[in-house]
TrEMBL record:
Primary residence: mitochondrion
Compartmental location: Mitochondrion
Signal peptide range in chain numbering: none
Higher taxonomy: Eukaryota, Amoebozoa, Evosea, Variosea, Cavosteliida
Protein name, per record: Isocitrate dehydrogenase (NAD+)
A cellular-component GO term for this protein: mitochondrion
PANTHER family per UniProt: DECARBOXYLATING DEHYDROGENASES-ISOCITRATE, ISOPROPYLMALATE, TARTRATE, ISOCITRATE DEHYDROGENASE [NAD] SUBUNIT BETA, MITOCHONDRIAL
The keyword Transit peptide is assigned to this record: yes
Amino acid sequence: MEFNRGIRALTTACRGTFNNKVQSRSISAYHAHRQVTKRVTLLPGDGIGSEIADSVVGVFQAAEVPIEFERFDYKGGELGDNSPKYREVLSSLARNGLGLKGSFFTPLGAGFVSRNVQLRKDLDLFANVVPIKNYRGINTRHSNTKVDLVIVRENMQGEYSGHEQEVDPGVVQSLKIVSEYSSRRIVEYAFQIAQSEGRKRVTCVHKANIQKATDGLFLRTFRSVAEKYPSIEAKDMIIDNCCMQLVMHPSQFDVMVTSNLYGNIIANVAGGLVGGPGIIPGANIGAGIAIFEPGLRHSAQDIAGQDKANPTAMLLSGAEMLKYLDLNDHATRIEKAVQDVVADGKHLTRDVGGSGSTRRFTEAVIEKLTN
């Protein structure tokens, strides 16, 4: 999945709704003989974040990537609403236009807003893009089946709107917000990704048979947009059936577009088919700004600091970020090194059936890059 293609798709998909930052994002300096160092905001996050961020920094240094990280080792609990630290992070991301992050842990219970969600809302990162594919060297029930799909998730609305209240003692309600504007821009983006990558099918995942107003609007918008792309097959599927179909026949899916909550669910189902959260990259895309992060957003608090974390998802997210910057040679080298280490199987971490460590996996990737 090439997110640099996706950002060009975004320009077309959202014509007239954004400022000209997207159109001017070609970063032509990277095509000149002299490479310019790009500053990127690095947010390791909670749990294993510091370890997998260190892995990326080491690999990028070994690959001589022209990136300078502006690093903030803040935990999610330190980034309170409108706190100085949170404003500092927002300012850095707005200034650099690009971020690489781990996951901020969100505790259960009232009174704590997810910093992952808040960042996406404050920066209008409306599209969450998660590519799912199987990798040679990781044994799963679908190892002999080609899995290669892209989940495009609306990032701003739906059940994640955050409007909940107690209407009577023991009775609460949650407001699900869906607008035609947000539905149209995410569906347009999904079709543009399919078109730019030569993919054949876009599937809208919904529950319009029950959620007739909200999901009904999303589905109607999908069908309206699909008419503009006659060369791409447009299908729709109810969310519960979709989860079953993903587990049974994942190869039928190409690009999937869906609302916020459903996207979170199907990304985790699909990720489980190919090896889990440790190997899935992802990105959050807005107008002139993007944050790359592991696609399934697991902070893995239980293994933090134990040198057990799988850095693959963070490394591949970093490689996708380089493609976004048109640093394709560096991205390809890093991707190949990571894939070769995974295929070798000698340094796989515990989550994918090995006994290796974060440090040794990273060292093996660096050895592939430098030998």
